[in-house]
Design a protein that fits this description.
By secondary structure, the chain is of the alpha+beta class. It has two domains: 124 residues, no CATH class; 98 residues, Beta-Lactamase. The chain has eight helices and five strands, in the order H-H-H-H-H-E-E-H-H-H-E-E-E. Strands 2-1-5-4-3 form a five-stranded antiparallel beta sheet. Strand 4 and strand 5 form a beta hairpin.
Length: 233
């Protein structure tokens, strides 16, 4: 179906553009004189539809091709029909204007496609990374700057349960506010790597190494690795 939309748009616009020359209809002639010609061949604006559509579907090359087709369609009116002075100049200005809009549409579509592709690649790489982290025997948490847990690997889930979406201080210490005395999150999201001993509620002691981690949405988070060193003390 998409293959036929472009030629149908061009044919429709062309028929509308030359309707008064193709059909002898007094009412249309009066409308054209009072409205379309009265405000400078406004029916030429219809060609923006196929040009913008070409830019969206076929990008810059498509917009350029359809703009050139529209230019060729405009020529007979400019040379033989238009009642305005300097009809060729007016037609050239409109063609340039329409072409720029079509090309900009193609540029924006290309940028959107590249952004979507990049986002998909980032999500894929994140999934691969988290898949590897999930198999690590040490516990791993990814914590956002708002103290919410974005990821807990299987080792953490075995010990503490599902934690994604919870606040780290609730998950680890059953507190209702950040544990300011020992929390390293503010330092880590500023770019530092922190290492310290962390005592859990059940009495175990973990060596924790926390480093900055940029998540898929661009947020700087804290990636923390918990290693149980209770029996090594």
């Amino acid at each position: 179906l998409k293959l036929f939309i472009m030629p149908l748009l061009i044919v429709f616009c062309t028929l509308f553009y030359y309707f008064g020359e193709l059909v002898d209809w007094a009412a249309w002639e009066a409308l054209r004189i009072k409205f379309f010609y009265g405000i400078h061949d406004i029916h030429r604006l219809l060609f923006l539809a196929p040009i913008i559509y070409a830019g969206y579907m076929a990008r810059i090359k498509g917009a350029v091709i359809v703009t050139l087709v529209a230019f060729i369609i405009f020529l007979p009116r400019a040379f033989f029909i238009s009642p305005f002075p300097d009809p060729l100049l007016r037609m050239l200005l409109f063609t340039a204007f329409a072409g720029v809009i079509g090309i900009m549409t193609g540029v924006i579509r290309n940028q959107l496609e590249r952004s979507r592709k990049l986002e998909a690649e980032i999500r894929s790489e994140r999934s691969k990374l988290l898949g590897i982290i999930d198999k690590i025997e040490d516990g791993v948490l990814i914590i956002g700057p708002d103290y919410r847990i974005r990821f807990a690997n299987s080792a953490m889930r075995r010990n503490f349960g599902e934690g994604s979406g919870s606040f780290c201080y609730e998950y680890l210490q059953n507190l209702d506010r950040p544990c300011k005395a020992i929390c390293k999150l503010p330092n880590v999201v500023q770019g530092t790597v922190e290492r310290w001993l962390y005592r859990l509620l059940d009495g175990r002691t973990c060596e924790v190494v926390s480093s900055p981690y940029v998540d898929a949405d661009g947020t700087v988070c804290q990636l923390s690795v918990f290693r149980d060193v209770t029996y090594k003390k």
